[in-house]
Amino acid sequence: MFRSLGMLLLRVCVGAVLIHHGYDKLADIQGFADSVVKPLHLPFPVLLSYVAAYSEIVGSWLMIFGLATRLGALAVAGTISVAIYHSIVVTGGFNIYALELLILYFGGSTCVALNGGGRFAIDFLITRALGMSSSPLRAFAMQRPALEELEELVAKTDASPSGNNALLTNK
């Protein structure tokens, strides 16, 4: 319960504080392309500026609402990782004052991407309504047959007259 409250707080805080950066990029997309993307020598700077802006906007909204939370957090973490690279390479080295906010955004969005949105997310309601697990590893573990089922399967193959039991029992 407390973990889910923590994830809710993290999702809403990171998303709400980061979202304005995307809107600021859209307000002057050409200026962002000239000052940030072109110095990185990436192709199609205006297109990539739109990708960065919309990944921050859409990713932040997804994190806030907890809908496709991991995907939104992954989009934000990807954009922020490019911003961290830009801050280190283009603006002149490892400056903690320039990096601290970016590192917080990256850490928060990566934490959400790895852990999911928690119980207070729309994702949780959807997976619960569909009878699925919210954790990919838990869903995999739930699909494994139980030990009793495996023992029954082996017993059936041992009793079958087909001759395949020699392969299973090493006779």
Instruction: State which percent range the strand residues make up.
Output: under 5%
Total beta strands: 0
Low-confidence stretches: none
In terms of structural class, how would the helical and strand content be classed? mainly alpha
Structural description of this entry:
There is one protein chain. The protein is an all-alpha fold. The chain folds into 2 domains: 2-127; 135-169. Helix content is 77%, strand content 0%. The protein contains 9 helices and no strands. The chain has helices at 2-27, 29-37, 45-65, 69-89, 96-115, 122-129, 136-143, 147-159, 165-169. Helix 1 packs across helix 5 (96-115) and helix 4 packs antiparallel against helix 5. The N and C termini lie far apart (53 Å).
Would you spell out the secondary-structure blueprint of this structure?
Elements: H1 2-27, H2 29-37, H3 45-65, H4 69-89, H5 96-115, H6 122-129, H7 136-143, H8 147-159, H9 165-169
In brief:
The protein is mostly helical and 171 residues long. The protein is 77% helix and 0% strand. It is built from 9 helices and no strands.
Descriptive key words:
171 residues, mainly alpha, 2 domains
